[in-house]
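Supplementary Note 3. Input sequence used for the single-chain structure prediction.
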Amino acid sequence: MADNFVDWSKTTKSRDYRGTGSFATFMIVGPVCFFLGILFASFPYDYPLLWTTDPVDAAYLDQLETHLRFIHQSPPLIARLLNIMCGVGFLGFLLKLFRPSEANVLFDGASLVLYTIGVGVYIANIVKGMRTVSAGIWHDPSFDGVIHDGPLTGQVVLGREESLKVLSASNTILALILVGVLVLQAGQWYAERKEADENEEMERRALVERKDGKKKQ
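The predicted structure, written as discrete structure tokens, is reproduced below.
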């Protein structure tokens, strides 16, 4: 199965090798940097919740709620653009992993795993947290910390400050995952550069040996 999936004869010199200089890599790095920019813009809001020991003022939580509600209730075009950017990243991975070389499997395969985990964190934690903020359940007088969806199922909803901390922590986790994707792509570039230097050195030595052989003749 692995032999059918991986093209073991493909190297960095192959014409159909899709390495870090290919457009598919741009389709991966572009969306990753785009999402990292969004997360960086949210960092000033996340910093007081995660990276300081000072007590959080209730007015700040109100401001953060307003900010998150504004983002979540933005026009549908914004959500569609985010989905398109996410899909562009997956398309880039599919292009690089079509008849992949060993390097593609190692670097791009691991990057795809991280990218998929990041999408899971976004859907399961961040989107769900924003929905909770938009619903405003913490301001409901009957809120007791538990919401039951049915007779046998239910979910525990934390208090406002704890839920916002979880959302901020999810942003940090997602940022680290996306940085991991960039590190793997940079590692692939370094491996290609190192292999190119080694091939150049081998060709230079072979040329020198041929010249020495002709002189001896």
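Strands lie at 146-147, 155-156. The chain is about 75% helix and 0% strand.
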